[in-house]
Design a protein that fits this description.
- With about 575 residues, this protein is of the alpha/beta class.
- The chain folds into four domains: about 1-20 and about 195-300, no CATH class; about 20-120 and about 140-160, no CATH class; about 300-515, 3 Solenoid (Pectate Lyase C-like), CATH 2.160.20.70; about 520-545.
- The protein contains 18 helices and 25 strands.
- It has a 15-stranded mixed sheet that branches. A three-stranded antiparallel sheet has the order 1-7-8. A three-stranded antiparallel sheet has the order 6-10-9.
- Strand 7 and strand 8 form a beta hairpin.
């Protein structure tokens, strides 16, 4: 370990949210990314560097890498969703898009011109002149991203690249770092999702560190074959970009610093290789320092499961033998590092609206025959290997991903939905981006968002999610084995019912945000008319008192039979906790 007491680790969020759970395009290889890195620097005045505009990225992706425009936009937009923006900024962009009447108008908004200026501020501190450059952007519609960070984002898509050896024997090439696996809540090694495996994050960055640094080098610091030399120098801007992936602390203090602050810290100049004269880093020294200080993420999944706080949210139902396992790190983790992991919720109802969940990355694993309500604003949600269950979620600010789930219903407002290896799942969603159908899915059903709870609109505002645009019915199919629309269907209006959340909470939301599509609203109206006609028929039948009793018993018996046959009886039974009332969700 480094003598300075500096600890560095790989951030979890770029991998949990940013690494798409599908093999990347072949053109995202290091060879092509190095070419892009050189190209953007030669187009600095054309919206390519230090900020990469959508129009320039579209030109590179579609014209040079031969990617489809939808795919180019997908990666650009996913990276933008990781950027630090206020909810008001995201809502403003949603409003701009909602006023567009066609895809051409949407594209026009993306291609508006950025106007920017550079402001230099000089500070005199103990006879040392520090130069700070601030770039102020005035936005007229177009999105723009940090160029160097975007290159790193494209590179880490290799996390889910399919290895021939892995696909044949189910493991990576032997390596000491790969022998440790992220434990689940039963302390067994069963985590195959690399996006949530912090050991995989650390191993990936450690193994690819030279390539990541070379990708950030100025062209004059590289050989003709795009490799570094012993004399290569790394710019401060490159180290700032690498802070997208790495952060750390000093002497195990609670305060977290971005990588560039630690690398520029005066006592560490000798080790990090920073030169005050050239204001650059020695490539070799910087790489050696990073490798020496890199350690496990203290706020990652493994730390959460090993030393996180255990929660008892789900009550035990009579007759079940498995006990739900739920852990969180919110008592020690700063904002943006919060995690909640739950596993083995079996034949239970779990309902929670809690500060513990606010802004947390949530993983739900191996839950079966359960009803889970997480009614708080969430950062991201991953649902993995669950069966025969219903999940009702508060607004998900970034990504909602399902993997290897069967007969699951998900009800959520989310920025993005992606699914892989699911069978017979139903998604009632409200989302400003196209749902992603990845590989291995069968019998997927999409339906409009159809519920509400009192704090929903407030939670949507806190996460920057609006009711429009809403692309719930326009999924993007990314699986090669089945590119036809037969892999999914839209729920027929005749099968549509609203969903009632059976908990009391304080708040102002009294109806479904944004309402329902006209066809579904019409179907509900027609069903309501049938009920009114039936009620009128019963009333006009002029039944005697005994006949009314017999009729009531018949209806109740049929209703009870329907509850049992549909499985709703289990849900009703589980809504009555041992010692708490219906306000369980607000605890």
């Amino acid at each position: 370990m480094d003598q300075s007491g500096v600890l560095l680790w790989v951030k979890a969020e770029p991998f949990i949210v940013g690494a798409l759970q599908v093999p990347p395009p072949s053109k995202f290889s290091l060879h092509y990314l190095r070419k892009i890195s050189t190209y953007v620097r030669t187009r600095a005045t054309e919206g390519a560097y230090p900020r990469l505009s959508w129009s320039t990225w579209r030109h590179i992706a579609c014209g040079k890498l031969q990617l489809a425009k939808d795919l180019a936009w997908l990666y650009f937009e996913i990276f933008d969703s990781l950027a630090v923006k206020t909810p008001e900024e995201r809502l403003e962009w949603s409003e701009i898009l909602s006023n567009c009447m066609s895809e051409d108008e949407v594209e026009k908004q993306r291609n508006q011109v950025w106007i920017y200026m550079y402001v230099y501020i000089y500070l005199l501190v103990i006879d040392v002149v520090l130069e700070h450059m601030f770039i102020i952007y005035f936005l007229f519609g177009q999105l723009s991203v940090d160029t160097l960070q975007f290159l790193l984002f494209l590179y880490i898509q290799q996390l889910n690249k399919v290895s021939l050896r892995t696909s044949l024997i189910g493991e990576e090439w032997p390596s000491p770092r790969n022998r440790s696996h992220s434990p689940d809540l039963t302390e067994k090694s069963s985590c195959h999702n690399k996006n949530w495996n912090d050991y995989s994050h650390q191993a990936f960055v450690y193994d690819h560190l030279s390539n990541l640094l070379e990708l950030l080098l100025d062209p004059e610091q590289l050989t003709a074959s795009f490799h570094s030399t012993h004399s290569s120098l790394v710019s401060r801007e490159a180290v700032m970009a690498l802070s997208f992936l790495i952060e750390g602390t000093v002497n195990r203090a609670r305060k977290i610093y971005p990588l560039y602050e630690l690398a520029l810290w005066q006592p560490l100049h000798a080790e990090s290789g920073f030169s005050k004269t050239s204001k650059t880093f020695s490539f070799c020294k910087l790489e050696a320092w990073l490798r020496a200080c890199l350690t496990g993420n203290p706020f990652g999944t493994s730390a959460c499961l090993k030393s996180g706080k255990k929660l008892a949210w789900a009550h035990q139902v009579e007759g079940t033998t498995k006990r739900a396992k739920i852990a969180c790190n919110t008592h020690v983790a700063p904002r943006m590092h919060r995690m909640v992991v739950m596993s083995q919720v079996y034949k239970q109802t779990l309902a929670k609206s809690s500060d513990t969940l606010v802004g947390a990355h949530v993983k739900i694993h191996r839950c079966n025959e359960s009803f889970i309500y997480l009614l708080s604003p969430l950062r991201s949600v991953t649902i993995e290997k669950c069966r025969n269950s219903t999940f009702v979620l508060g607004p998900v600010q970034t990504a909602l991903h399902l993997y290897s789930c069967d007969n699951v219903k998900v009800i959520a407002v989310c920025h993005r939905l992606s699914i892989s290896s699911t069978t017979g799942c139903i998604f009632h969603i409200l989302t400003p981006t196209r749902p992603l159908i990845l590989s291995g899915n069968q019998r997927v059903t999409f339906a409009p968002f159809h519920t509400h709870y009192p704090m929903l609109e407030d939670h949507m505002a806190r996460t920057g999610l609006a009711t429009v645009p809403n692309y719930w019915d326009n999924p993007m199919i990314m699986c090669r084995e089945n590119s036809s629309t037969s892999v999914f269907r839209l729920l027929p209006p005749c099968e549509f019912y609203v969903f009632i959340i059976p908990f009391e909470m304080e708040g102002d939301t009294t109806e479904i945000p944004g309402g329902l599509p006209s066809a579904y609203q019409k179907a509900l109206g027609q069903r309501e008319k049938k009920i009114q006609i039936w009620q009128k028929t019963v009333k006009e039948a002029c039944l005697t008192k005994d006949q009314r009793k017999q009729f009531q018993v018949l209806v109740e018996n049929k209703f009870y039979e329907w509850l049992i046959n549909t499985g709703h009886q289990q849900q009703l039974d589980s809504l009555v906790p041992p010692a708490a009332g219906s306000k369980q969700a607000a605890g």
